């Protein structure tokens, strides 16, 4: 990222800040259960766009490669479950979105591990043991990830977990019953 | 999340899809190094807004509680580093953004762990060993997280890692030299 790119970012931010009204402070958040979305880091898969989500007071959005459930995702959901309304409320729903033409569909665990081994020799065993998160089948990956959240002992028993498939070509987000 | 909420989402998505042009497919991504942003899941901290980032072909955005570097974050960066241009390119820069009034500033590891133990008794040791990710000092947390990425043996040696502090009240994103 060049110094020029950073200057462009600063310029865009100056314009944004001059028109920005202060976001609500945490202490003024409404007393309600949190909703969290988990999806891919891919710039084509942006819940704010395809669900027209509000800025500022919409759901929290977790993003990683593929929108896969990992220990870090569980950490985030657990943290949110404890801090809403200073511990008096919790998380109500998690919505997982996987998408078509995802990097995790186009590339297998083997491809990624092969490249890592090639570029960073001498660490084959550590690389072999890495969780990569390939998606062979969108409904199957959603089912696995929903199950992982439902199985977590550190979340509310009545936590709703929903699954959606987002198509980057049609723009459609379709609920998948799992 | 009620059935009514899901219907609202579907309705918003219908409107979006009817106006949506297909996003580029992965095979048509430009042959260039990827840029990734890591930030908090907080809806007030949205890089698309405060940097006016383009949809579709902007940076990949990773988000979790606090924007902290975890194994999952390293997984995501490593994956992206291997799949750009089908293995012929890599990741060029990671930009980490932590923000004011973050949940990880307002609540300590002890608070979160205390709540988890209270709500889910019988798992104290496992909870004690969890990484929560509290932020006591924004510059310090950014420094730690930048160092974690720089130290990862599975990323390009010339990977640029930048740090920003976003103020949810002023809307300003300020680069922090670490």
Automatic annotation (TrEMBL), chains A, B:
It catalyses: hydrogencarbonate + H(+) = CO2 + H2O. Reversible hydration of carbon dioxide. Zn(2+) binds at residues 40, 42, 99, 102. One of its GO terms (molecular function) is zinc ion binding. The keyword Repressor does not apply. Pfam families: Pro_CA (PF00484). This is Carbonic anhydrase. The lineage of its organism: Eukaryota, Fungi, Dikarya, Ascomycota, Pezizomycotina. The keyword Lyase applies. SMART domains: Pro_CA. Belongs to the beta-class carbonic anhydrase family. Binds 1 zinc ion per subunit. It is an enzyme of class 4 (lyase). Residues 1-24 are annotated as: Disordered. Its EC number is 4.2.1.1. Keywords: Lyase, Metal-binding, Zinc. Residues 1-13 have a biased composition (Basic and acidic residues). Its cofactor is Zn(2+).
């Amino acid at each position: 990222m060049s110094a020029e790119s950073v200057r462009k970012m600063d310029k865009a931010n100056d314009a944004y800040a001059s028109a920005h009204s202060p976001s609500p402070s945490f202490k003024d958040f409404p007393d309600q259960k949190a909703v969290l979305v988990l999806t891919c880091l891919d710039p084509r898969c942006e819940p704010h766009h395809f669900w027209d989500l509000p800025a500022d007071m919409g759901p929290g959005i977790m993003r990683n490669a593929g929108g896969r459930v990992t220990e870090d995702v569980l950490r985030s959901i657990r943290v949110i479950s404890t801090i809403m309304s200073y511990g008096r409320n919790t998380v109500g729903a998690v919505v997982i979105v996987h998408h078509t033409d995802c990097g995790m569909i186009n590339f297998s665990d083997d491809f990624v591990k092969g490249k890592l081994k090639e570029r960073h020799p001498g660490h084959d065993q550590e690389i072999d043991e890495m969780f990569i998160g390939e998606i062979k089948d969108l409904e199957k990956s959603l089912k696995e990830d929903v199950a992982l959240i439902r199985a977590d002992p550190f979340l509310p028993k009545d936590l709703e977990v929903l699954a959606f498939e987002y198509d980057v070509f049609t723009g459609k987000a379709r609920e998948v019953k799992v």
